[in-house]
Amino acid sequence: MNHTEIITGASAGIGKALAKEFAGHHFNLLLVARSEDKLKNLCTELSESFGITARYFPLDLLADDAAEKVLGFVKDNGIDAAYLINNAGMGDAGLFEKSDLQKDENIIRLNVLTLMKMNRLFIPYLRENGGGTIVNIASTLAFAPTADEAVYAASKAFVLSFSQALFEETKKSNVSVLTVCPGVTDTDFFKNAGFALGQFKAATPESFVAFAYRSIVKKKALSIHRFSNKLTALFCRLATRKTVRKVFAAACKTES
Ligand SMILES: NC(=O)c1ccc[n+]([C@@H]2O[C@H](COP(=O)([O-])OP(=O)(O)OC[C@H]3O[C@@H](n4cnc5c(N)ncnc54)[C@H](OP(=O)(O)O)[C@@H]3O)[C@@H](O)[C@H]2O)c1
Questions:
Q1: Which residue has the higher pLDDT, 193 or 38?
Q2: Using a 6 Å cutoff on CB, does residue 34 contact ligand 1?
Q3: Domains (ranges, CATH) in the chain?
Q4: Which of 84, 89, 215, 246 lies 20 to 30 Å (CA to CA) from residue 11?
Q5: What pLDDT does 201 receive?
Q6: What is the average pLDDT across 93-98?
């Protein structure tokens, strides 16, 4: 029997591409996001194209009990989940002192709190269910404090640090916690975050998810998409904090 992969933020962008990639490898799917119609249409398309079982659970992951609800849905429906990709995320751009505080709170709630709770609830669930893999989607910005994206970059630094710690805690067990970092990828993320892609040359979501699939199958602790992003991460380790701050501030400057 094929196992089920849970993907959050699967109605658009990278999450939607992940759903297509894993359906192509005959995984059954449970897709989570707020946009019910998009999830429903995607499930129909993927189950017809690949002969898999694709289900969806429309849910706002900003809710306090979102992680409990996802686990409850899995248990209530007898879903044999072995993979969880915590992909849903949101960003913002501009000077922090002028930011929309509610949006900042939502970034921390979605990117940090809900992700943390999903890991806390699903590690024991997967362990009892015969083992599995959790993948937390971070970002190249996880490696550097980034002016004009201060809250978002800090949220992804949490994802990176937290997920790497969990990899060590779980590595001798039947559950793995992996981190995959996209660089700039061509989705609606930037429009939703309120800034233009500008100088950046974006990867396609399809190239990112093909890379992510290979990394997940190999159970790599940390995978960074594209050679240029790997170099960026290396630069962040070797350069002084002052240099890293300045380079990222210049590269990610917004108009505000
Ligand atoms: N694109 C990039 O360049 C890039 C680079 C580095 C890292 N990343 C990371 O990659 C992940 C995916 O980004 P993306 O580019 O695919 O973004 P996107 O195109 O904006 O898609 C975001 C997804 O998250 C879902 N989502 C947002 N808020 C939600 C909420 N409150 N509850 C449930 N679902 C929610 C959205 O669905 P609904 O609106 O239907 O809820 C959508 O499916 C994020 O974690 C992001 O930080 C992206």
A1: 38
A2: yes
A3: 4-251 (3.40.50.720)
A4: 215
A5: 87
A6: 96
